[in-house]
Amino acid sequence: MADTKKPGKPKLDKNTMRRLLDYIFIPYRKRFVLVLLCIVISALAGVAGSLFLRVLIDDFIVPLSSQANPSFLGLLKALALMGSIYAAGVITTFIYNRLMITIAQSALKAIRDDMFAHMQHLSIRFFDTNSHGDLMSLYTNDTDTLRQMVTQSIPNIFSSTLTVVAIFFAMLFTSWQLTIVVIFSLTGMLMISSKVAKKSGKYFMDQQKSLGKTNGFIEEMIHGQKVVKVFNHEQESKKAFDKLNDELFNNANQANRFANILMPIMGNISYIQYVFVAIAGGTLALHGVGALTLGAIASFLQLSRTINMPINQMAQQLNSVIMALAGAKRIFALLDEKPEVDEGYVTLVNATYDEQGQLVETQERTNLWAWKNPHKSGSEVYTKLSGYVQFFNVDFGYTADKLVLKDVSLYARPTHKIALVGATGAGKTTITNLINRFYDLADGKIRYDGININKIRKGDLRRSLGVVLQDVNLFSGTVMENIRYGRLDATDEEVIEAAKLANADSFINLLPQGYDSLLAGDGSSLSQGQRQLISIARAIVANPPVLILDEATSSIDTRTEAIVQKGMDALMAGRTVFVIAHRLSTIRNADVIMVLEQGEIIERGTHQQLMENQGQYQKLYTGVFELE
Questions:
Q1: Which pLDDT tens digit goes with each residue over 286-314?
Q2: Rounded (10°) CA dihedral 538, 544, 547, 550
Q3: Cα–Cα distance, 54 to 30 (Å, whole number)
Q4: Tell me: the pLDDT tens digits for 480-490?
Q5: Strands 465-468 and 546-550
Q6: Which residues in 56-163 belong to E strands, given as ranges?
């Protein structure tokens, strides 16, 4: 179905172009000087060759045709000179094209580096609200449009512009009367190309957006293919994809429709121009106007044909530029995303006790951590990291109009195990997200070892926390590398010890290469329980003072859970632990159990106390109510 929307006038975003040129030109000034020099030589060589045609005809071919015994030595020298001119053009064209390929790849590398580096500083909220496939499209489709623009469009536009200017002056030198005929023709060509470019520009921008949406949907479907098949959702998925694909087709079809009709139109106009110039030149020569010779007419006809080619190239490359700018605008939109705000100044350092029993900073790893709090006076106060977490009247909502947590107050003393219980959406995971400062509070305060967490640098705060999530993410690499992700400086022995503590060592040793076995596809060759065990081992090797277990054993069968629980108990010993669990039997030994409902803590106490109270927890535990 054709798109009936009337395309708006595409605007050349000067800010986008300026920022793009900063990546392309500024770091490679010297190379661009050489590129421009080569382009000038190449353009002048083409024009000189056309002008030389007049010399060949008027000074050599015509005189030789009237001689009885002509000598072709002069003609051969002239042809050799003409060949040298064209050879210089070919060589310089080769040089500047090679240089532009190097510049383009270097610029794209810098853009991708900046995108990825900037992405590391964006908040979790950004990734929660943007399709992963659409973000991937920035690194592939959008950057590829830039590659085409830098390697082809920019040098072609520069070369074509210089060629047109040089040919125009050459035509004026040859015959100003015939030049006027060409100007009228070129004016029509420019008007047509400008109108077509305006129509195609809007659709090229829409094409890039539709491509991002389509990639995002494909990524989601591939990731969730098991769910699609389990619920027989194939036809509905196909319908949704067809809708997105139709939108992409319509936008791409409209954009390329206007882009592809441009060259035939321009080519036919150039043929008409050639005929008019030939007729006008012959008429002027017959009437003796302008002292036009046979060589001059032939040279001018060649120039008139030559000037059309760079204009056609510029018109064709204009579409590539518009599409590249559409991609660049999306890339810079990512780069303009505000990074995660971090106003913290309290840092986490390795510490030890001096002779006076005072905490002091040390560069060695001591497994004793302290918060380093610099004061305005220049002094530094060290507070031992013990894992004491306090919430004071915390309000929070993912959107401003809907609170997820309402007036939540709690505390977790060092070495205490805090269990969070409640239905899905009650706010359990949100509490742990706030401890990590993945999101900032709407109101209230959270203190960590007596320090407001807003004053602690996010990187240092998160380094003090170990997290085991229900959804496990494994990365391409060996089993050893995936466990070491928890602490990059961990030795092989420490990694193996962590795996043993998590009871993952036995199945790892059964893999083809043991700890050196390569994992790919997010560990798809492993069972869900095995992947979870590796995740637990990753948290163990990090050896943090505070642990967050978000349904950490939900993917493990009951028998395996009993084995893992022993390792988990050893891991949790001496640490502050937040546990989120639907399986209430796993949290009976928690120091405090908190029951949440619609963002509020409605009950708190030990398992025994809550059972005696015969409230919501007792009903959940006995099965009167069930967690959803």
A1: 766 666 677 777 777 777 777 777 777 77
A2: -30
A3: 37
A4: 988 998 888 88
A5: parallel
A6: none
